[in-house]
């Protein structure tokens, strides 16, 4: 996703990745850049919510379930 942002931005000097300049495969296009920017933001927030729900589920299994054989937090750590 970040490659798409850098590649399609009209004022970009190129995609620099680990010391190498990658070829820009997408044409410079500001409307397409805006779509990639919004998509990048939404996917980032979706990933944060998924990680938070995963951690909340592990804590729930640890402290609120009666079955101690289902303790996933100790296996995760």
Helix count equals 3
Percentage beta strand? 5-15%
Q: From the helix content, strand content and strand pairing, which structural class follows?
A: mainly alpha
Q: Show unreliable segments.
A: none
Mean pLDDT: 83
Which strand order do you get reading across the main beta sheet? 1-2
Tally of domains: 1
Characterize the overall form. Answer: elongated
Q: What's this model, at a glance?
A:
With 77 residues, the protein is mainly alpha-helical.
Describe this structure in words.
The protein has 77 residues and is mainly α. It has one domain (2-76). 60% of the residues lie in helices and 8% in strands. The chain contains three helices and two strands, in the order αββαα. Strands 1-2 form a two-stranded antiparallel sheet. A hairpin with a 2-residue loop joins strand 1 (15-17) and strand 2 (20-22). The mean pLDDT is 83.
Structure keywords:
77 residues; mainly alpha; two-stranded antiparallel ribbon; 8% strand
Q: What's the layout of helices and strands?
A:
Blueprint: H1 2-8, E1 15-17, E2 20-22, H2 30-63, H3 72-76
Helix pairs in contact: 1-2
